Structures are given as structure tokens and as C-alpha cells.
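RETRY 2/3 - previous attempt timed out on the joint model. Re-submitting the same 676-residue input unchanged.
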Amino acid sequence: MLVAGLDIGSRTIALVEWDGAQVMRAEVINTGTDPLANSRRLTQGRAYDRLVGTGYGRHLVAERELADEVMTEIKAYAIGAYHLYPDVQTVLDIGGQDSKVISIGPGGRVLRFEMNDRCAAGTGRFLENMAHALGISVEEFGPHAMEAEGRAVTVSSMCTVFAESEVVSLIARGEDSRRVAFGLHRAIANRTSAMVSRIGLRERFVFAGGVANNPCLRQLFAETLGVPVTVPDNPQILGALGAALHAAQTNV
Amino acid sequence: MSEEYRAMWEGLGINMRRHDMLLTALPEIFQQIYLGQQQRPEAMGFFDFVVSQIHGIRVKELMDHKAKGGKVFGTFCVYVPDEVIFAAGGIAVGLCGGADFSVPTGEQILPRNLCALIKSAVGFKIGSICPYFQAADVIIGETTCDGKKKTWEILNEYVPTYVMDLPNCRTAADRDLWISELKRFVDKVENVTGNTITPERLAEATALINRKRAAMDRLFELRKARPAPISGLDALLAVQISFYDDPARFAQKTNELCDELAARVQAGQGVAPAGAKRILYAGTPMPIPFWTIPALIEGAGAVVVAEESCTGTRLLAGGQTALPGDGIDRQLAAIADRQLQTNCACFTPNDARIEDILRLAKEYEADGVIHFSLSFCQPYNLEGIRVQKALQQAGIPVLVIDGDYTQEQAGQLKTRIEAFLETL
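RETRY 2/3 succeeded.
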């Protein structure tokens, strides 16, 4: 058996191939402006017994008959997290344009979930724009903020557009860019922690999605939530993994 | 239909360019959401026709009525008693504010952080886009929320707007206040129409409105069947049309629809597979053409079995009005007592609404409840918190969301609704 999970997110597309026992291939590419063509390229030449689509572009790939079935990324993340950590109870997924908190019940079932408001505040897109405003790469953004050693310049705006101009004026005022960066990270952590609290934090707490690659946010969540934070080795593929596992289960 | 009615619209002062844009967009949306549905009842043909003629035939009827000296009352709330208006020979039309199309126009004078319903309605008036609004001789507002209260003062500069003072509590003094407001309303309606409301005419008009309510009651009763005999979208459309169609014709056409549904129920036929999840909608009204929420729910394979909403069960609260024969005062008290069973979130306390939702979830065998509130609607947004808690305590799955008429949030809402359905 060879099945696949395809997670078409707003920033990246993740593919996981699963043979019933292990991951055969895991890949992450940029979504770009043509997610369908990029999805096709990613799966080109492969014959799957079943492919399950998830993420923002799930209906697009199902309509074009690339996926046999679709599921929301919320369910996919729950399945993926439960597979890696059977004792998981709370999953935080921060992706390119939204963030979600999922409360997991017995068997990896979704009990409840919360999603951020419709704007990009506190998501990967926000981090990307702020890193850009400070003139550094998104990969370097977390480590850069950690160099502030806990001393933050408070950034009051969480709107991507307003925060960018605030950052520009802070820098123009001569503020240390590391402290501004740390202030931005802390603002995201506070905002997202409130969402986690709303749903009720229970351990084990798993942090996934592209933003989980950011070490500063991992540390801040551990501090603000007061619990250990588990991050999978490849946090970006959790949804695709969940979709692939579901494909294996429904492949009859 | 356009050509036939252009002169009428021009006579009403309609902004023809904007109106043409609206009438071009609507059929496409309707086609996409409605006409692709499976197993639609044949009797929905009437309601489809009404939509296809949305600013035509009925407006023509209103204009004919006006030509004979009749008056048209535009209303916004189920607390405004149609019975009184019809008793004076007037016609009541529930004005809608369900289109994103007119929201930017409304925002020309109103703050952005106001619910889409008010902005849409005001946009229709100040943009001269809605012939029903144009045809209305007087608008009847009411004090259900701060947004509406203050908007009436502004709207009054564009069209005469009369305001009924709906109390926000439920003491004996509040009931007395509402009865006195109904009396004041009788005077107003008599004044506008020049006709006297006698107990006989009020009894007659109440019987007419009762017939319309009975037909809708029957529709909602039939929706309890498993499998559901009609989609939530189709039932909502009928309810939306009840706000402006002729009451007698509406009752007849809805009863024809119910006859067909009754046969379906008898035969065990449904619109959705037997395993489809049954959803109870609760929250703010869905004025025509706001179909987004049931479209998303039913597009994901579930079926909406009832709406706890002013475009749903709240419209039917209190059932039939039983009128005592002796005198206007006692008749108005009977109307008030029927109306005050409508559990609008403008009341405090409003535990009865929470009890309604729990009861409806049970009666309609709902697998889950989706509570939707228009953004910036404080009464429903805030009450959603207690509704959520009560449903969770009762072990009934619930999703609480808010939004407006734009498509901006459709992707997120779709994910939320689909993920909720996955958990059921």
C-alpha cells in the first residue's frame, strides 16, 4: 500500500507518503501562486492507492480529482499529533495565515478547537513581515530576538500593517532591533496563549506548523503557559501526516 | 422582468445603475446556492419565482395599493405587529438588510463597527436601491438594540421613521409598557392610513396573520422528520419571503409546500442521506439574500433542521394569537402576550432563549448547534457565551462563530464549520 496526505497551506504545501508502517517520503514546498500545479508536480509520477487532501486548498485539489477525499487541517493535525504522541491533549498549530488550538480527546478525536480571527495577526505571515521590516530573514528572526536576553521593546499593534509602521518608527528612534524583535515575539505569545487558555490547556502540549520552527516562540510558550512544549522533528508536515494516516485507514 | 418594471422603479426614484448591478448579481448567487441542490421540493418553484421577480411583481402590488390610497409600512422586527397594520388596511413589509452590496453605501454615514444588517438596510435607503424601502410611506423602528435605536434617528432624516419602545426586561411594568406602546401604535397607524381599527377588523387581520403563522408552524413541524424532508436553505427562503409577500398567498403556497413535504415524510424520503448530520442554527436573523451559513453547512454534507432566529422559530414564538372578542384593549394585550414570548437577546435576563435552544436541539434531534452572530451585534455576541456554556453542560456539541455578509471570511468559516461537523 502507498497512500499520501497533501496539506495545501497558504504558504507551503506538505506531502507525506505512507506505506502502512512508515513515512516513505516527506516534502515541503512553497505554495506559490498556482497551488494546483505545484501539488501536481509534487505528486508527479507517483501512483497512490489513496490521497487525502487537507489545508486551505483542500477543495481545489479535490475538485480537480487529485485528492480522493478531503478533511480539515484541524482533524488532520489531531490525527498526526496523536500518532506521534499518543498522550497528546492540546495541539497548537500556527501556520502561514492562521493559528489554531485543538483540544484532543481519546483516540485522537477533536473535542474542541479555536481559530484566530480572520486577519494574519500572530501568524507566520506576521512574523515574515516583521522580520522583513527589521531587514533579517524569517529563519534568523527567532534567534535574533533571543539575543535581547529577555529585554523587550513593547510593540502595541498586532495588526500586520500597523505593526510594520510601528517597527519602522521604533528603529528610526534608535531602539535595538533585537529588543524590538523580542517585543514582537512576546506579543504573539501573549495573544496566542490567551487563545490556548480559552480552550483549556491540558498536557501533553504539542506545538506544530511552520512557526513552531521558531526557537524564541517555543521558549516563550513554555514560559507563558508554564508547561513543557513538544515540537515534532518536522512540525510542518503534521497535517500531511494526519491526512496520510487517514488515507491508510479509509483505503479499502 | 427588468423591462416591464423599469418605469415603476424610475418613478420610485431608484438609482437605476446601482439597481441594475444588484439585479445582475443576484440571479448568479441564487443559481449557485439554490438551483444546484438535490431533491428540491417541486413547490419551491413558487418561491424561486418570487426571487426571480424580487423587485417586480410584489412591488407592483404595493404600488397598486398605494394608487388606491393605501399605505405601506416598512418594518424591521417581529415585535412590530403586522395585525395592526393590516387591520387598518395597510400593508406591512419586512424590510431586509441582508446584502453586502449596500453595506459600503451604509458606511458612508454609519460607523463601520456596526452590524451588517443595519448598515445594509440603511445603505439600501440612502443609495435608493430597494423599491420596497422606496415604496414605504413610513418606517417602523423599535428599540431592540443601541445600534438600531440611534440609527432610527438618522434614518428619520431620509424617511419618516416611527419608533416603538420595546422594553428590555420582563416585569409586569414592562408588559404594561408594551401594551401601551401597542395602543400608541394603533393611533399612529390610524393616523397614517386615515382608517379606524375596530375590534372586528383587528380580529380579521389577526386571523389572516394567524393563517400565515400556522403555515410556517406546519413547515417547522415537518422539518422535525428524519430524514429531513427539506433543506435548511429552502426552508429559510420560504421564511425570508414571508416578510414581504402577501400573507394570504404566502399561507396558501407554504401549505402547498407542506403538503408535498408531508407526503415525503410519509414515504420516508429526505433531501439528505439518512446519516447526514442534523444542525440547529441559533443566532441573528438571516435576511434575504444572506444564505452563507446554511450554504456552508449544507455544502459540507449536513442539513440545517431549524433556525432559532427571527428568520425561524423566534418569528413563530407564541404560536397563534387567540383574540378575545371584546374591545381593542384586551385584544392588544393578547397580541402583546403572544409577542412577549419571543426571546430576543435584547432582553435581560433571557434564560428562556437558552431553554428554547436546548428544547429545539432535542425536538429536532440535532447532532450539534451552530450559533452565529453578526459581528458587532452585542446582544447576540454576548449571549453566545452563555448559550455555548449551557449547551456544553447539556452535552450538545456547539460551535460559536460570528461574521458579516462579505466573502472575505468564507474560507475560515468553511474550515470552522467543516471541522465542527467532523467532530460530530
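The interface with chain A takes residues 408-409, 411-412, 415-416, 418-419, 422-423 of chain B (CB under 8 Å). Closing ticket.
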